[in-house]
Amino acid sequence: MYLSTIDKTKPVGGWRGLSGNVFALGAVSLVTDVSSEMVTSILPLYLVVGLQLSPAAYGLIDGVYTGATTLLRLVGGYVADRTNRRKAVAGTGYAISAVAKLGLLAAGSSTAALGLVITADRAGKGLRTAPRDALITLSTPEKDLGRAFGVHRAMDGIGAFAGPLVALAVLAAAAQSFDAVFMASFCVAALGVVILVLFVRDHHEHTAPKEPLRLNAITQLLREKPVRDVVLAASLLGLATIGDGFVYLLLQKREGLQIGWFPLLAVGTSLVYLLLAAPVGALADRVGRLPVMLGGYVALAAVYLLLFGPAGGWTLVVLVLLLHGVFYAATDGVLMALAGPRLPERLRTTGIALIQSGQALAYLGSSVLFGVLWQFWGPEAATRIAALGVGLALACTAYLLGRRS
């Protein structure tokens, strides 16, 4: 197997400055995202159409899906820095998410049970994300961070692209049995854990603290203005971002797309994302990470405006999915590459967790607010307010971070 033959601390091939650890972590994320997207690509339609949840109720579940594990993100980051065992903490998170897939077999149509299983899955994601991203930053020279995160996110995007297609193939082969999808999802997730155990190396060099980290590590970080600014900016941007499920539901509603097409909307976004993540990350290293990230949020505002603009038909569908993919390629990994150098090395994982937690909490509020606005003011008004929110968040982010980028 290729990964077993490479030195995970040396540059690989022509990707100067990128270590094998980046590619190994990318492989773990690729496989895990296949598993996750097998389930999540149909979740919005299942909840809103299948279980007849209102937009406000779906907004609450969608927000909890991402935001409710904020504390675990912080716990995972702190424990990883305290123990200097980032791989072990990340692996625990991946394992929890894998086991949660089995819970879907027992949940059935119970909304409460589904909520518990989804929370467990997101708890695993909350634990693993910061240690994983910290390993990438600690395994990569600062000048190549945009490219490193771009390559990782591109591999992650391949998994997100393949997941819905694998789910559709399993459904076709198993006579539309969702239990078969859940079991297959678990098996794929377990493979991701195996890859992490065998091929990812922890990073201990120059990271062991001279004294044990204390529980006030978060307040120590927030006293530093560069860290405080990036946490605030990330939170504002999270507050201006509505969930993918809302975007796809609005697109399906406006164009009257058949239910069978719905999972493929996420595939379209993921295809653009995986094609652009690496080159956009390299571009961010050359021209500046902040301009590229702000450009991604401009693309997101365009998505919101297009949903109720003059364009229609397949032209609208293609434009929305293209811009949505551009948004992710220009923001997801680029934000972490921008934030990494601002964080003290001994608190790198805790700092990344703090940034991600601020975004997750803001995202929870955004999803609930958008769902309420949709239900009481209508989807068009809610979407235009969201576009205005992106504009305000962009202005604040440019002010907060522009002086250092």
UniProtKB/TrEMBL annotation:
Please give the SUPFAM superfamilies that the UniProt record associates with this protein: MFS general substrate transporter
This protein's record includes keyword Membrane? yes
TM helices/strands, residue ranges: 12-31, 157-175, 181-200, 230-251, 257-278, 290-308, 314-339, 360-377, 383-402
Indicate whether Cell membrane appears among the record's keywords.
no
Signal peptide (residue range): none
Q: What PROSITE patterns does the entry give?
A: MFS (PS50850)
Q: Kindly name one Pfam family recorded for this protein.
A: MFS_1
Entry keyword set? Membrane, Transmembrane, Transmembrane helix
Intracellular or extracellular location(s): Cell membrane
Predominant localisation class: membrane
Topology class, membrane: Multi-pass membrane protein
Entry GO MF terms: transmembrane transporter activity
Q: Out of the domains of life, which is the source?
A: Bacteria
Q: Name one GO cellular component term.
A: plasma membrane
UniProt domain Major facilitator superfamily (MFS) profile: residue ranges: 21-405
Record PANTHER family: C-METHYLTRANSFERASE, MAJOR FACILITATOR SUPERFAMILY TRANSPORTER
- Tell me what this protein is called: MFS transporter
* Species name: Lentzea tibetensis
